[in-house]
Amino acid sequence: MNDLTGGCACGAVRFTATGAPKFAFICQCRSCQHLSGSGNAVQFCHDAAGFSSTGPVAEWARQTDSGSTVTKMFCATCASPLWGTTTRAPDIMMGLAGALDDPAAITPDRIFFADEAQPWDHASVPAKGADQ
């Protein structure tokens, strides 16, 4: 797989994730609902060492119910959500699919926090072994 590139809506922030992502997922937790302004956030996990960015980034951190700290990065100019980190896995960054130049470059293969899904959010992932 080629590098993943992306950025914010106004173009002030750009990022590159070198190499293939570890996996992609749909998160339906309330925090991701707030972050996305929708029922879920589609994200990909990537090695933090292969991730770089340029441009003005703002961050917001919160403590999770499990005690880890999740930090979300946004464009400081247009407030587009871009990526996040967690103290639970400090060597991983979680990029948002909507910030990718080509969101179709990833395919979510799991759903997290489905128990927090809104009744109208019918997210699904491809069946294992299905042609993609």
Helix content: under 10%
Distance between the termini: 14 Å
Q: How are the strands of the biggest sheet laid out side by side? A: 6-7-8-9-4-3-10
The radius of gyration computed from the alpha-carbon positions, rounded to a whole number of angstroms, is 14 Å
- Biggest sheet layout: 7 strands, mixed
SSE sequence, one letter per element: EEEHEEEEEEE
Task: Write down the overall geometry.
Answer: globular
Question: Approximately what portion of the residues adopt beta-strand conformation?
Answer: 35-45%
Q: Please provide the count of β strands.
A: 10
Number of helices: 1
Extract low-pLDDT stretches. none
Mean pLDDT across the residues is 92
Q: SS-based structural class?
A: mainly beta
What key attributes describe this structure?
mainly beta; 7-stranded mixed beta sheet; 3-stranded antiparallel beta sheet; 132 residues; single chain; 1 helix
Architecture blueprint of SSEs:
Blueprint: E1 4-7, E2 14-17, E3 23-27, H1 30-36, E4 41-47, E5 51-54, E6 57-63, E7 69-75, E8 81-86, E9 92-96, E10 111-112
